[in-house]
Amino acid sequence: MQADVAVLGGGIVGSSVAYFLLKEAPGLSVCVVEPDPNYELASTVRASGGCRVQFTCTENIEMSKFGIAFIRDFGSTMATPDGPAHADWIEGGYLFIVPPAQLAGLERNVRRQLAHGCVVELLTPAELKARFPSMKTTDLGGGAYTPHDGWCDPNGLLQGFRRKAGELGARYVDDRVESAEVDATKVKAITLASGRRIEADAFVNACGAWAGVVAGKFGMKLPVSPMRRFEHYFTAGAPLEALPYVKDVARLAFHSEGRGFSGGLVDGSEPRGFNFEVDHGWFERMVWPAVAERFPAFEAAKCHRTWSGLYEQNELDGNPVIGPWANGARNLHTVAGFSGHGMMHAPAAARGIAELIVHGGYRTLDLTRLGYERIVAGRPYAEEGIL
Ligand SMILES: Cc1cc2nc3c(=O)[nH]c(=O)nc-3n(C[C@H](O)[C@H](O)[C@H](O)COP(=O)(O)OP(=O)(O)OC[C@H]3O[C@@H](n4cnc5c(N)ncnc54)[C@H](O)[C@@H]3O)c2cc1C
């Protein structure tokens, strides 16, 4: 089989890449290799759906701005003759809350977001209390509220991208990348589990939590590891006012979902590995005390479901790797390592890599600083503050 571009992995990142390649260059021959068409283990369908501009790196703020605008219009942009797409965008806002010791850092971050044209309000504990009366604020230094952030349905987003990419001509191949033919400057072909071989001019590794393993098949070192994270659906004991997506410095994060809430508490020290086992005591031990401390109404919270998913953790700095294999075969591109932010950043990262492949350079947002060069140099480029 022959293609102009072979995309490896057909989750939200791979499917966005296929779509933007075909937007940039209609008629390009694009195939997407995805072994799990039902996405049973893919991170995308296990995600919590949050999209926010509250970052500190220029690239992340700008990728969020583009991603949020894109997702807001997703239904019509991604419509096909079968009908509109369904991302179910909810502009519920995001709220980062910090203790007094971290207020100065939050204020600095907010100034950066404001400089990028984002709408961000810094709220004192008294203002937080007035706006969100159910929240305990006495121990807080303040909060940053971004009213135009929100959350969406990750599966709806993925299916919309996949369907539209297919309409524009992308071919999905239900198979797994097993090995690659690589010389010093070029990847020539990949071989799939079925024995099929695909030759292409360019290859894109969009394998999420599997991206490090897949890079290894090309002889490329990519410090992206699978890191398990639990997500829970829970209800409160008593009705609460409408809440935004709340995040704190201990990495507690949750948002309303239907009649309840979806969220969890990220443990960055979780052992790395492809582990999907669910710890049904995690909510009771870790999440419930944290939400109940912040919102006393959650004293009577009930957890209805817990599931696990994998973060694609970039062990160098927690930011994605986007771009060519700088010191190897340059026609192998990586779009992976989003470390838990890949759903919201998929559209902008995919647009960027499509520009690189089709035009030879970034045309909209410059993502050079997120390139593989920093991995080679061992030079982290990290977020500051709440992750
Ligand atoms: C609990 C949880 C909550 C999250 N919440 C958010 C959030 O609120 N906002 C946000 O932006 N992000 C969130 N994320 C992160 C987000 O889910 C990921 O960053 C994003 O889904 C990554 O997309 P992907 O397409 O790279 O990965 P995936 O969706 O995992 O897709 C990768 C694909 O590669 C395929 N693959 C594997 N091996 C091979 C191979 N050898 N050959 C070919 N294909 C292969 C897999 O089958 C898979 O379908 C969350 C993640 C988790 C686990």
How would you portray this structure in words?
- With 387 residues, the chain is an alpha/beta fold.
- The protein is built from ten helices and 18 strands.
- Strands 1, 2, 8, 9, 10, 11, 17 and 18 form an eight-stranded mixed beta sheet that branches. An eight-stranded mixed beta sheet has the order 5-6-4-13-14-15-12-16, with helices on both faces.
- A hairpin with a 4-residue loop joins strand 9 and strand 10.
- The chain is globular, with a radius of gyration of 21 Å.
- The N and C termini lie far apart (42 Å).
- The mean pLDDT is 97.
- The site of flavin-adenine dinucleotide (FAD) has 41 residues, from helix 1, strand 12, strand 16 and helix 9.
List keywords for this structure.
387 residues; alpha/beta; eight-stranded mixed β-sheet; 10 helices; globular; binds flavin-adenine dinucleotide
**Secondary structure: helix percent:** 25-40%
List segments where confidence is low: pLDDT < 50 over at least 5 consecutive residues.
Answer: none
Span from first to last CA?
Answer: 42 Å
Instruction: Report the bound ligands by name, code or SMILES.
Output: flavin-adenine dinucleotide
DSSP helix count?
10
Series of secondary-structure elements, N-terminal to C-terminal: EHEEHHEHEHEEHEEEEHEEEEHEEEHH
Proportion in β-strands: 25-35%
The count of DSSP E runs of length 2 or more, i.e. the number of strands, is: 18
Oligomeric category: single chain
Give a short synopsis of this structure:
The protein is of the alpha/beta class and 387 residues long. Helix content is 28%, strand content 26%.
